Each structure stands twice: as structure tokens, then as C-alpha cells.
Amino acid sequence: MRETDHSASSLLRQGPESIQRQLAQDGLHLDLGLVRLRIRSSEASVARQLFEVYRHYVPLQDPCWCDLQVSLIRAQGLRSWLRPQVRFFADGAMNFDAFPADHGLPLLEWGVNWLIGRRMNDVLLLHAGTLERDGRALVMPALPGSGKSTLTAALSLRGWRLLSDEFGAFDPQAGAFRAVLKPVALKNESIGVIRSFDPGAELGPSFDKTRKGTVAHLAPSPSSVARVHEGARPGMLVLPRWQAGSPTLFEPVPPTAAFTSLAFNAFNYAVLGAEGFQAVTALVRAMPAWRLVYSDLEDATSKLLGLWQQQAWRPWPPLRPQEPGLPALAELGTSA
Amino acid sequence: MEQLGEHWVAFSPLSGETHLVNDTTAAVVESVSREVPVTLEQLCASLAADAGVMPIDAEDLVRQALQMLVAAGLVREVPLPRAAAA
Amino acid sequence: MTRDDGASMQLDWLQSLRDPAAVQGWSLAQWERVIRLARRLRLLGRLASVVQAPEVLMHVPPEAARHLRAELRYAAWRSGALAWALERLPAMLGDVPYPLVLLKGAAYMGQDLPIGRGRLPSDVDILVPREHLADAQARLQRAGWEETPLDAHDQRYYREWGHELPPMRHPLHGLELDLHHNILPPVARTHVDAALLLARLQPSRWPAWQVLCPVDQVLHSAAHLFHDSELRDRLRDLVDLDGLLRHFGAAPGFWDELAERALALGLQESLALALHFSARWLATPVPPALARSVAARGLPRWKAAWLLPLFEAVLWPTDPDRLPSRRQTLAANVLLVRHHLGRMPLTLLLPHLWHKMRTRPVSDPAMPAAGV
């Protein structure tokens, strides 16, 4: 399912040359929701890659504020003359190894994720794929072997609004998840899986021989870009596990396991201290938690929707267990 | 400390650590969480009474739990003569 | 606060660390720039902590305020971890018959100094008398602290030629522990008598830990900065120095004592450099007569002529949107050579550097591994 791009000035409409000009001068300014990002680069390949995977983003014109300023710069030196490389700079500091010069996009994506994880401690940053439907958030912690990105990508192509495939950015004050909207990173077989799942999926170029194998990115849809500042109330926690040959199975997850999956799988849980503890406790009480084991992506996505539509949502802030006379799962309908 | 289902999770502002805590340890933490420091003997006595065992039987378990809790920053020793407190 | 060559007033914002009300006039663009620079210089936590008062905070734009809030949390986490480690360490060490001395950031926190707030400690520096170094290390190891694995050459470098042991880590504490027996290496041309430092220790807020006396803290800070191999983005150390001088400088007799002590410890050059940059860039109120006499003894004209421009080039922070200038890189290299020559006799230095070059890892293990 592909939406049409109605915006007059998305990257798609502007084209790679215009993007390249912006990258070379004052920078390309993108609104990811949680943060505004400014990218600068002299590399033409970077312009083309951004054109593909950020195609529906409308760059901010002369913003007076950006939260992150990064540059992709050709590495200097003899070794680079033999094998061209590109480096990632943030605020004049370069903390990461160089990547091959035509691998600017994976370097950018990974570098920006690192910066967000390190800096944005004003919200709780879970390591999870997060999507929105009916005003509620579906949160899928990024456990190894979960196939989290594949599932996130698939759901985003089936009517769920993508908030982020990397971050579950929860604002405890607002009681809502926020978007950190970036292209979904797919690895190795997942790329082909998503292509078959939806032949119209807007995938960017594939990058071989990265540390995680072959990587390609799914461009976020026009509506997910347009709604990047719409939050989502806590909805459902799903711990996915892809297992070859398995039928689609759901089983409830006990609260402490849910707690562990969130707290010990977050970017800044420890940094937030007591507030992080309170927030995760509240999330565990507010979100029904399920383990999903599957092998068929199509079947899993449709059964997940079924589960979702039957779900009785819980209020925010959640009820504490000591409160007398109230059952754990209140039938309060789907209102936020 | 918060209850999640049948278990407990505890956060220590001192150490910044979060712990999954079993029933015995949770009981110790709760008993220690009063304003007034308690001694080991008092602790064993009150927990043993709750559990319906002799204080002397509880002492080993409580001692072990306390050691762990102090190292985790969930309980702190206060320099009164032979006293342990939250 | 200005460079000699008349470059832009890039360091004016540092004034806000002493006078938070100064931020009221900042535009959004200025905030953006300051936050980026402060972050790289590891001063963002400090800035965040000084603008917390409600009457100041109301003038901070929300876009900036969230970054300050976020960094304050990060600093609180790291500082809390340090305080916890320091609370647990005495129990781990047991009853020791010698003093345990905190250095640098931990010491500032232990004295509740203004510069102790908003810090991002990643390691804890402890000084013990040299004769008890082995004992201290043994106690730590029994308590679960492990030495980082080093090959035989590096081990010998640390033990024989250095003033500190290789860093130690504990599985439960995220911090690195650096055990020192002096503030500068014993084989260096500048040799400090640690016994003099140990003779004048002061208590800290933590009963088991002591700190150097005020003038020694200043001299250590100066020596630590100006004897280091890497001075780029070290402006924070200068800010710390300024903070120490302002805080302790109010005490009567402090400045004279500082000059005398520098002489006694052989750290006149470091002090001269420290006072020069601190007064020039941060407007530290150094008594002018004292500054002159310290300069005369520690930094004669001929030396100042070539040394000051080098330090200036490396200490001055690079603009966040620019790469380090060639001038800075060159100056850094010259100072690096000087550093090595000052640390070890040539007969030891050459084999050491050769070893370091051969065994240099392909990528720094301290950097995060690249992934997608």
C-alpha cells in the first residue's frame, strides 16, 4: 500500500541535485519528531541515498533551532586515497570509525541513533519498534532474534503508523510515546521478505558488507511523516520471536518479564534513575503484554491486528495493585 | 519498591540499580523501611513471627538477605551500635 | 576571553558559569551554539546545573531547556555512580593504616565545590603512599576489582615509570579506578615529592576519604593539564582551575602560599601557564604582582615566546561546525613530542613508543563498535 505524496517540497519533489546543494551549504534540516536534525555533507552519494529513504520528508526551511547537527565528511589521508572513506562528525567531534565512502547512509543512521540514545534523556528511550493505531502505541522490544525490524516494517505497510523502529520514546510527563521517525533498517533476508510482503514497499539502496551484513532501509510513509508530532498512549507490549516453521502463537507475559524486557533493553533506563523505574513500572501496569512466536509474517500481522482489536485498554496513569476493589484489567474501552 | 504481579522490583537511589526481589528479601526490605532503624534481632523476631518460625531459624536467611541488600544499596547500615537501617 | 589575534569572542559564554543571569540575553541561535560547544567540552552538565534557579530558568527557551535537563540527568547518574562507589570502597578496602586521597573531580565533589556539580565522572582517581600501593591494589583485587589486561611492556611502563597503576574495573561498578602514588611520573624531568602532598591532607565530606590541601589541588590541576599529552578540548580543566582559584583564593594568604608551594613542589611552569590562561581567558582575579613573579620564575620570556602560542592553539576550542585547524593539529603534535620527552629519558622513550606503535589496535576499543 503506497500513499501518494501530495507535498510540494518533499525530498522526492526536490530531487537529488537540490538535496545535494542543501547538504553542501546550510544543511538539510529534517524533523524526526523527537528531534530536529541538520545534515551536512559534500558527498553526492549521500544526497542520492537521502533522496531515496527520506523521500517523503519535507525539509525545514531556515529553522532557528536544530537538536542534532551532523556532518558526513570525506576522510583525509593516504589510506583514504586508496580506499575512499567517509567520517561522521557531530559538533566537531568524531567518535566513530570511518565507513566506505558510498556507505554514508548506514553511517548516518547509526551515528544519529547513537547521538539520540546518548543525549535525549528528557524522555525514556526504550529499545523497541513502536507503532501507533487508534491513538495507542504498540511497543516491541528489540530482543535478539526477535525480527523486530521486519515486523515493524511489515506493520507500517499494513495501516499502522510508524513512530520508530529503534526507539520507544516515552514521555512520562505527557504519558505518551513520541515519534523518532527514521527509515526502518532491514538486514539480510528481511529485505527480500519485505519486498515479497509488499512489492510496492519504498526501499532504498542495499549496502553490502556492513558489520551487520547487507542493509537496506524502508522509507517512512507520507502520513507517518506528516503526523510526526502526534503521540500515542501506552497500548500493548509485544515480545516477538521469529521461529522457523512455527504457527502464530500468542501467550501472556508475566509482569516481571515485561518489566525486564523494557528496563534492561533500553538506552537510558539507568540514566533516568528513579524516574525510569517509575515510568517502566507504570508502563508495565498500563500495557497488556504478549509474547508472539511466528514464522509467517502475513499471518502474524493479521492475527496481531485481531488481538489488538479485541484488547481492552487500560487507563493512564495506570491503577496501582494495592487499590482496593479494582480488577487488574478494567473494561474501559478504547478511548485514550 | 513496587509489586508487579506476584513479584517485586526494587530501585535503589543510592546505587542506581534495579533488582528483581524475591518474597523473603521483599519482606526484609519492607520491615526495614520504617523511619526508625532496627537491629538484626528485632528484624528476625518480627519476620519470624509473620512466618510462624523461630527467630533463630530465620537469622541465617535474614543475614544473607541483608548482606545482599546492603551491597545493592537498598538498605544502609547506620552507625548505631550493632544496628541496621534503611 | 579574547584571543590575541582578535578572533571572535568565542568564550564569552563561559562567564555564565559564574554569573547565570548572563544567559538571559542569549538568542536561540546562541543557545544552540553554546550547547553544542559545551557538550563537546564536557561542560554542558555544569551549565545546566547553574541555570536551574527558577528566575534564570524562565529565560531559557524550551528547546534549549530540554537539552540542559537531559544532560543534568546524565550527570546526576554518573555522579551518583561515583558517590556510590566511593561509599562502598572503604568497606571493600577494609581498615587501611594509610590515607586514601581523592583527586580531581571526586575531590571537588567531596568538598561540595561549585565545580563539583554537573560533572560526568567516568573514573575515580585515588592517591595512596607509594609504599602502600601494592597493598591497596591487593585489597581492591580481593574485593573484586580487576586490572585491565595489559601486556608485560605496558605493565612495566605503568609500574616503574608511571605514577599510577593501570586502571581497574569492577563488574558491578561501571567506573574505572585509577590508583596513583604521585601526581606526576617519577622519571619525569619535573619530579614532585609525594610526601609533601601527603603531609598536608584535608578531610572531605566522606569520612574515609581525604583530599589534597587547597594549593596542592590547584597545582595538581595545573600540572595535570599542562603535563598531559592531549590538550585539545581540555578547556574544562581550565574552567575547573578558575573555579578552584576563585573559591580558595578568597582565603587570606592563599596566593602567596600558592607561589611558595609551586616552588617547593617544582611546579612553577605549570602554575605560570595556568595563571596565564586562566586570567586571560576566564578573567580569574589573580593578583597582578603575583602573576608577574610566578611568570618570571616559571615561564621566562624566551620559553613563553614559543610555548604559549602552542598551548593557545590546542586549548582554544574548535568551532562546532569546523574541523580542527592544521595549526592546532601541528601544535598538538609538537606538544605531544614535548610531553613524551618530559616523561621519560630518551633511552626509555624510544622503545616505549616503538612498542605502542606496533601494538596499536586497529580501532580504539573505547569507541563504540559500528553497527546499523
Task: Give a written overview of the molecule.
The complex is a heterotrimer of chains A (336), B (86) and C (372). Chain A has helices at 11-24, 44-53, 78-82, 104-119, 148-156, 189-197, 222-226, 255-263, 273-286, 297-310; strands spanning 28-31, 36-41, 68-74, 85-90, 99-100, 124-133, 136-141, 161-164, 167-171, 176-178, 184-187, 207-210, 213-218, 233-242, 249-252, 289-294. Chain A has 336 residues and is α+β, with helices and mostly antiparallel strands. Chain A has two domains: 8-119, no CATH class; 124-312, no CATH class. In chain A, strands 6, 7, 8, 9, 10, 14, 15 and 16 form an eight-stranded mixed beta sheet that branches. Chain A has a five-stranded mixed beta sheet with strand order 1-2-3-4-5. By secondary structure, chain B is of the alpha+beta class. Chain B has one domain (22-85). Chain B is 47% helix and 19% strand. Chain B is built from three helices and five strands. Chain B has helices spanning 23-32, 40-51, 55-72, and strands spanning 2-4, 7-11, 18-21, 76-77, 84-85. In chain B, strand 1 and strand 2 form a beta hairpin. The radius of gyration of chain B is 12 Å and the shape is globular. With 372 residues, chain C is of the alpha/beta class. Chain C has a domain at 213-357. Classes of the chains: A alpha+beta (336), B alpha+beta (86), C alpha/beta (372). Chains A and B meet through helix 8 and helix 9 of A and strand 1 and strand 2 of B.
Strand order of the largest sheet of chain B: 1-2-3
Quaternary organisation of the protein chains? heterotrimer
Into which percentage range does the β-strand content of chain A fall?
A: 25-35%
Overall form of chain A:
globular
How many domains of chain A? The number is 2
Q: What proportion of the residues of chain B is helical, as a percent range?
A: 40-55%
Query: What radius of gyration of chain A results from the CA coordinates?
Result: 20 Å
List keywords for this structure.
heterotrimer, B: alpha+beta, two-stranded antiparallel ribbon, 47% helix, globular, C: 372 residues, alpha/beta, 7 strands
Layout of strands and helices, then pairs:
The complex is a heterotrimer of chains A (336), B (86) and C (372).
Chain A: H1 11-24, E1 28-31, E2 36-41, H2 44-53, E3 68-74, H3 78-82, E4 85-90, E5 99-100, H4 104-119, E6 124-133, E7 136-141, H5 148-156, E8 161-164, E9 167-171, E10 176-178, E11 184-187, H6 189-197, E12 207-210, E13 213-218, H7 222-226, E14 233-242, E15 249-252, H8 255-263, H9 273-286, E16 289-294, H10 297-310
Chain B: E1 2-4, E2 7-11, E3 18-21, H1 23-32, H2 40-51, H3 55-72, E4 76-77, E5 84-85
Chain C: H1 28-40, H2 44-50, H3 54-57, H4 62-93, E1 101-103, H5 104-110, E2 123-127, H6 133-142, E3 146-147, H7 152-161, E4 168-170, E5 173-180, H8 194-198, E6 202-203, E7 210-211, H9 214-226, H10 235-248, H11 254-265, H12 268-282, H13 288-298, H14 301-315, H15 326-343, H16 346-358
Parallel strand pairs in C: 1-7, 2-5
Antiparallel strand pairs in C: 1-2, 3-4, 4-5, 6-7
Helix pairs in contact in C: 1-4, 2-4, 9-10, 9-11, 9-12, 10-12, 12-13, 14-15
